[in-house]
Structure formats: structure tokens, C-alpha cells
Write a structure and sequence with these properties.
Layout (H helix, E strand, L loop, with lengths): L4 E6 L15 H22 L3 E5 L10 H16 L3 E5 L11 H4 L6 E3 L6 E5 L2 E5 L21 E7 L1 E2 L14 E2 L1 H5 L5 E5 L5 E2 L5 E4 L15 E8 L2 E8 L18 H11 L4 H16 L5 H14 L11 H7 L2 H19 L27 E2 L9 E2 L3 H12 L5 E4 L8 E4 L5 E4 L3 E6 L2 E8 L6 H18 L4 E8 H7 L4 H7 L6
Parallel strand pairs: 1-2, 2-3, 3-4, 6-7, 7-10, 8-9, 10-12, 21-22
Antiparallel strand pairs: 1-13, 5-6, 11-12, 13-14, 15-16, 17-20, 18-19, 20-21
């Protein structure tokens, strides 16, 4: 029996969508969509899947906010740590074009982003994924396409429209047309589609599904938003939907012509959508656990949250059965107060400086396995073991050139994800994240420096550098072979001082040192 291959198929998350039509609940639902993505990553790890497939429109815009992109990259890093691959295609909302997210940011090495105008195969082990970048609305991706014969699990990853979703209510139905006959003749084992926001099977010779959005995006969507867990073994494909929706959209028709006032309408709404404090407290508890990535202790935390809401959240003790109290709990201010309070208290209990440390492992740069980097501007180094330095920014390339010209530097290394040098820290949201410094510099046999370069400072920079400072101090206490220090290099100061030696860099760049 051949080894089973497991993948999770999702798409159309539209992260960064504004949800303006939800009014003051828009921020809450934006957070729901991010929480669902975190839950999908958790599910990939729990199910020990081989890969995650994202069928386009991961983002709602080709240039989403930096905070959204950083969130996604941090989540994808969690999959990298578990050796889970991620295959991503762009969609009509986040198309593959210059100056878009796909060119502006560096994704972890476990992420494969398709950049071809036609279906191209990417093979890893017994899995071959045929993906296509979204660059226009009209091209038929399966026209004259036939996958090569192989014993591998052959999967198509496409963002487009079948005739099944043609509707006056779907103005984008004609984008990237996919015909039923093309699907049947594709020689693929499974086709993972994106673009349509509800779960839909395109029945035929080849297993073909829209996974739909994992979290409802509008009142058009069904309540059963989910992802698809796909198993392949001995030539057979099994598809299982797993519900992921945190919040559901329901449409309720009410005849208001016979109602005298708003209170009567409110009574009807409360009757049709039964609100109870148990559901509200459960919602808060799950939200806290999701943000802190807690996998057990729900029953204990539930009682703590209940007690806090009942006795501490308001000016006085409240009756949780009171509908007015429950309505107040749906306000964004109340939700953030509850979640942020518990995050802070839990982190204060679990993230503590113990005052001691130990060295458990070393990273030997010369033993790093080969890895692939993007085709972009680079530098050929003489003082680095890597054959090419590819910078995530122009500043990184300039700094690499500076190190090459420093006579008081023996060697250095650009800290790619493939080096696996990372430091955990508590970010501005109160969560534990991984921080990858930009450079490690060997000044001489007794002095080592960790360098962080930055073009524009964000909220996490002081927290990262504070943690880096502590890391160096701990390492210096734990060993005496070499002294470790750090330097923060911002672009404005780098342009201002124009250091000509590493010694000058040490002297002039003192930010976060004292």
C-alpha cells in the first residue's frame, strides 16, 4: 500500500477586507478572519498534513497592510517548523504583478508561490502541484492542458470560474473560465479551485472542489464555511469538509408594518437569535486560547473569564442573564478589554526572566543545507560562506557591501531563514513571535555582533532589540569563548554617518544600547 498523502485545501480568505457594511463590528470580523487562518495552521499541524494549498485571494488587496502580511508570514513559519509545505497562487484580488505583495515581501522557504502565466508543475516527493499565477481575467487555465502521466498525486491549483457559478449575483463569474470537459480531460487526480466563496463540488471524472471561504465574508455565504481535508492513497481521493467558521451570517425577514416601536423589533430579533451568556463566555475563551495558542485548559479558563465578566468588567457585579449586558458584551471595546486583559495576565505568568540560561545547540553556517532564493538584486560576497547575498531591502545590500569593505571584519553571514537562527520575543500584541536578526558579524576571534537593519521603524523594533540585548547578555554569561553584542542600524543614520569601518559603526550607532 502506497503511503497516504494529506493536504488541506483552502482559499478566498480575503485577509485585510474592511467589512465596512458591518459598521462597528467590522474590526471584530477582520480579527475573525485572522483567527480562522491561525486555526487552519493549527489544523495542518494537528492532522500532520504534507502541504497546505491556498487557491488565491489570500489577501483582499495586492498591497495589504504590513501588519496583515507580518501576521501571515509568522503563521507560515509555524508550518515551516513542522516541515509542512505551502503552495500559494494569487487571485483576482491579490494578482501577481510588480509592486504587489508577492514582490515586496520575503516568504519562508517552505512556501511555493506560483509565478507562471500557465499551469506549471512543482513536485515534492509523491506530490505534484500544477499552479498558475493570476495575471488576467480571461485566460482559460485548462485549455489544451493535460498533466503528465505519473504515479504521483497530481493536483491542480487554480483561481477561476466554472459555468456552475454563473449568476447575476456573481459579477466576477466569467473570470478565468474553466469548462467541464477541460476538467475531465486534465489527467489530474484533484483540482483545488478558488474564487467562489461557498463549498461546491464540480462533479465529473476528476475530483474537483471549491473549498469556499473558511470564514463567511457576506450575507451571500452559507453558514457552513469550511476547509477541505484531502487524502490520496492507492489512486483514490477522499475529500472531507471541516467547518472552520467562527461567525455565521444569517438573513432574517421581519414584517415591521405591524410593530409600534423599536423594542418590539428587538424582542423579535432576540427571540429568533437566542443569546445566552454561556455562548458569549465560550466565544471569549476560545478567542483568548487562539491568540495565545493554548491547546488545553478550556474548562479552567472558561470559569476565570466568566468570573471576570460578572464581577470585574463593569462598575458593579452584573447578571449575565440580562440581555442588555449580553448586548454590551458584543461591543468591540468590551471584547478587546476581556481578551487583552487575559492575554497580559497569562503572558505575565508564563513569560518570565529567570536570570539564568544555557547553551543547548550551535548553528554551524558551513553546514547549512543549500536553499533557493528569489531572483532579485544581489551581491557576490568574499567574506561570507554563501555564494550570493540577496537582500530583503536595498539597505541590506548596501550594508553587505559595507561589511565587504571593512578591514576590521573577518567574516559575516546574512541570516536567511535557511540558517534557522531566530530569537523568540513578546511582540506589541502581547503574543510570542520569532525574530530573525539580519546579520551575524565576526569582527575577530573574540568579538561577535548581531546586526539588525531597518528602513522604517515599527512598534516591534524596541521589543526585538530589547530581547536581542538580553540574548547577548545571557550568552556572554553562559560562555567565554567570544563576546556577543548587537548593533541597530537604521537607514537614516547609515546615510548620515557614512561609516568607513566597523569600529565607526560601533561608535556612532548606539540606539537601544543604553
Amino acid at each position: 500500500m502506497a503511503q497516504e498523502i494529506k493536504i488541506i485545501h483552502t482559499g478566498d480568505l480575503h485577509l485585510g477586507m474592511t467589512f465596512k457594511y458591518l459598521g462597528d463590528k467590522s474590526k471584530l470580523h477582520r480579527r475573525d478572519c485572522q483567527d480562522v487562518f491561525s486555526n487552519i495552521v493549527d489544523l495542518c499541524i494537528k492532522e500532520k498534513v504534507d502541504s497546505l494549498l491556498i487557491a488565491g485571494d489570500l489577501f483582499d488587496d495586492p498591497n495589504p497592510s504590513k501588519s496583515i502580511v507580518t501576521f501571515v508570514i509568522d503563521e507560515l513559519k509555524r508550518l515551516k517548523e513542522k516541515n509542512i509545505l505551502v503552495f500559494i497562487i494569487s487571485g483576482n484580488h491579490d494578482p501577481y504583478k510588480k509592486e504587489s505583495i508577492w514582490f515586496e515581501y520575503k516568504f519562508p522557504s517552505n512556501v511555493i508561490i506560483f509565478d507562471s502565466h500557465g499551469l506549471e508543475p512543482k513536485t515534492v516527493g509523491n506530490l505534484t502541484v500544477y499552479g498558475i499565477a493570476y495575471t488576467n481575467n480571461t485566460k482559460e487555465p485548462l485549455d489544451n492542458f493535460k498533466a503528465e502521466k505519473s504515479d504521483n498525486f497530481k493536483v491542480g491549483l487554480i483561481h477561476g470560474s466554472t459555468t456552475n457559478i454563473k449568476s447575476e449575483e456573481e459579477p466576477e463569474y466569467s473570470y478565468r473560465p474553466i469548462k467541464k470537459l477541460q476538467i475531465d480531460n486534465s489527467n489530474l487526480d484533484y483540482i483545488a479551485l478558488g474564487h467562489f466563496h461557498d463549498l461546491l463540488e464540480i462533479k465529473g471524472k476528476v475530483k474537483c472542489f471549491y473549498s469556499g471561504s473558511p470564514e463567511g465574508l457576506s450575507f451571500k455565504n452559507s453558514a457552513n464555511s469550511s476547509i477541505l481535508l484531502v487524502r490520496y492513497s492507492d489512486g483514490k481521493v477522499n475529500v472531507k469538509p471541516i467547518k472552520t467558521a467562527i461567525r455565521e451570517f444569517h438573513t432574517l425577514e421581519v414584517d415591521c408594518t405591524k410593530l409600534d416601536n423599536d423594542s418590539e423589533l428587538r424582542k423579535i430579533l432576540d427571540t429568533n437569535f437566542i443569546i445566552n451568556y454561556q455562548g458569549a463566555i465560550g466565544f471569549f475563551t476560545k478567542g483568548i486560547m487562539n491568540e495565545l495558542r493554548l491547546f488545553s485548559g478550556y474548562d479552567i479558563l472558561y470559569e476565570k473569564v466568566k468570573t471576570f465578566v460578572q464581577n470585574e468588567l463593569f462598575d458593579q457585579k452584573v447578571n449575565l442573564e440580562d440581555l442588555n449586558i449580553l448586548r454590551n458584551l458584543s461591543e468591540i471595546e468590551a471584547i478587546r478589554t476581556i481578551v487583552d486583559t487575559f492575554k497580559k495576565e497569562i503572558n505575565d505568568l508564563t513569560v518570565q526572566d529567570r536570570g539564568d540560561s544555557e547553551i543547548r545547540n550551535y548553528i554551524k553556517i558551513s553546514k547549512c543545507r543549500p536553499f533557493v532564493v528569489k531572483q532579485q538584486q544581489s551581491l557576490i560576497p568574499k567574506k561570507c560562506v554563501f555564494n550570493r547575498i540577496v537582500g530583503d531591502s536595498h539597505l541590506e545590500l548596501r550594508f553587505s557591501a559595507f561589511l565587504e569593505n571593512c578591514e576590521d571584519v573577518i567574516s559575516y553571514v546574512k541570516n536567511y531563514f535557511g540558517v534557522h537562527f531566530k530569537i523568540d520575543y513578546k511582540n506589541a500584541d502581547g503574543n510570542i513571535s520569532d525574530y530573525y536578526p539580519d546579520f551575524v558579524v565576526k569582527k575577530n576571534e573574540k568579538e561577535m555582533f548581531i546586526i539588525e537593519t531597518k528602513g522604517r521603524e515599527d512598534l516591534d523594533v524596541p521589543l526585538k532589540t530589547q530581547r536581542l540585548k538580553q540574548w547577548c547578555e545571557d550568552l556572554n554569561k553562559a560562555q567565554k569563548k567570544a563576546k556577543y553584542d548587537f548593533i541597530y542600524v537604521d537607514e537614516e543614520s547609515f546615510d548620515k554617518y557614512h561609516p568607513s569601518s566597523f569600529e565607526q559603526l560601533e561608535k556612532n550607532f548606539r540606539e537601544y544600547k543604553d
